[in-house]
Amino acid sequence: MRKKIVAGNWKMNKTFEDADELMSEIMDNLEQIDLSRDIQLIICPPFPYLEMCTDYANDSYFAVGAQNVCDQARGAFTGEVSAEILRSLELVDYCIVGHSERRTYYNETDAIVAAKVNQLLAQDIRPIVCCGEVLEEREANKQFEVVERQITDGLFHLSAIDFADIIIAYEPVWAIGTGRTATPDQAQEMHAFIRSLIAKKYGDEVAQETSILYGGSCKPSNAKELFANPDVDGGLIGGASLNANDFIAIAQSF
Ligand code: 13P
Hints:
The protein has an eight-stranded parallel β-barrel with strand order 1-2-3-4-5-6-7-8, surrounded by six helices. The protein is 43% helix and 16% strand. The protein is α/β, with parallel strands linked by helices. The longest helix has 19 residues. It has a single domain, classed as Aldolase class I (TIM Barrel, Alpha-Beta Barrel). It is globular, with a radius of gyration of 17 Å. It has twelve helices and eight strands. α11 links the parallel β7 and β8. 1,3-dihydroxyacetonephosphate (13P) binds next to β8.
């Protein structure tokens, strides 16, 4: 059975003090989540807060992830953070790659996504790889073509063994931070399509084991109907992950 996952992408929000408070509020409410359902919570804070979050993660059942990583192993890359550096923090076990904000504002191509995925896997950090179309692409009915290219060029160089560590997040760009969520049918349709691509490349077993998360204005009021779909294995949550009650409520929506 593949894992149900709720990951919070804090993006570039919160001072250290506010982030610490949010973490302790999340910790105080963790027992509300039904652990027997094998739900993995992942918090992805800004880089400087990773260690503060892993300190909380130490003796609990949620994990910590970074929001980005360098596509190079080490060396003279001022301002960058490598997978090796993330690994040396010990409890950073996940990292978001290829978020649409990075693709749009920092020219992250599918080739760069592929290189970042390689760096992470070499350090045993599980990539959460984002894909998704912009509004004009959906209006032109090109969403499947776009997502197929992102998945193929970003991930299909991997062996089946390496691919087993990949988590995919479908985030239609028109739904991110806009309050406009994909309908449960739109999410299910795309998730099933992504799973069929994986099945074609790596076989049914790998496809059935791959967690595919939905992201884009996911909140307590719509998480239940999104997560009820057979191919939606959880969410990558932006805005609503900045509020402990909302984040926990989403994690209770399976
Ligand atoms: P919102 O939940 O704020 O729409 O952001 C989604 C997202 O980009 C998560 O990575």
